Amino acid sequence: MDQTMDVVTTEEPSRPASAAPDPPRPTPAGRLRHAARAALPALAVYAVIRLIGLLTVWIWAGNVGRNPVEELTRADGNWYLAIARHGYDGYEKTQSNMAFFPLYPGLTGALDRISPLSPRESALLVAWLAGLAAAWALFAIGAYLHDRRTGVLLAALWAAMPHAVVESMGYSESLFTALAAWTLYALLRRHWVTAGVVCLFAGLTRPTASSLIPVVGLAALLAALRRRDGWRPYAALLLAPAGWLAYLAWVGARTGRPDGWFHIQSAGWGTSFDFGVYTVDRGQQALVQVAALPLLVVTVVALVSLMFFVLSVLDRQPWQLLLYSGLLLVTTLGAAGYYHSKARFLLPAFPLLLPAAVGLARAGRARAVTVLVTLVVFSAYFGGYLLLIWTKSP
Prior knowledge:
The protein has a two-stranded antiparallel sheet. The protein is mostly helical and 394 residues long. It is globular. The protein has helices at residues 2-10, 28-63, 68-72, 76-86, 103-114, 119-145, 148-159, 173-188, 192-202, 213-225, 232-239, 242-255, 260-268, 277-288, 293-314, 319-333, 342-345, 354-363, 365-388; strands spanning 272-273, 335-336. The chain has one domain. α7 crosses α18 (354-363), α10 (213-225) runs antiparallel to α11 (232-239) and α10 (213-225) packs antiparallel against α16 (319-333). The protein contains 19 helices and 2 strands.
């Protein structure tokens, strides 16, 4: 009897003849198609908003006799183009282009070599595709944490920022934002290897990966201490800083000093970290003296960013997003130099827009559209102003 019971209880229960078979598991390609269809409204809204901004620049540039493609790839864009075409220069130059990280110019150069596009057109195409990838990631995060409407509005708000024209320029902000956002989305989903690999590429894109790498490292360390997900958190812990550290090591080898990249930044480009003294001083000047419009907008963006960080804390945003945006605020506002570009440097701090996206999603369609239209009009005008009237980099 005992032997019979053992056999009965250990056998796999048979499926009734009339039962339907289990549905096949979706393939990676199938999951990708499904995700793309879900994100399509966010991508469409993002593309329309950025197209309005580009058309504004195009028409404005034509009216004043300027080449819009050249305007969209000027200032830092020219440095990236030089790297894409000729590689990195020597350390002996006053302003070495080794200050710029390699992934964006590398992709530009690769596309230039394999396509009929000019170097400037290649730089713009890489930035535009990266902008769409970033919008997709922002939608994914907003939909995962709240709902699809919040995801769409998060992508739309990012497209309508005052300095959003930079997302359509030959700059690396769009690419970094895409990589940072997908890294954080992978972290929220506990896809450790993906987070580590994407963070590695983010570390090859901009120095502000220093705000992303600690987030991946801390999340992976906590998972490892809790013995969750096996070996994968350890892989993320090793992969995340690899790109950033590798480039700094390469610059150190080229310059013959371990702090080579930081020395280039301070001696050649005049940037250092002074805990925000410079930023506060320049912000006060912009508010109490006659200041150019871009300086006033930068000051307002900095103040609003701090306000939205407090709101993010009050909303109990996931700590991964809070730590990332908090570190990005510290490294951007705490650095001395290039006050006029600080709002642009904050473009990758997209989690700061989540409170606004959630509020608009709950406010109703008419109110959300009213706010967005107003933001898009100002963003389009201000983007043209930055490129065609303002004489410095955005």
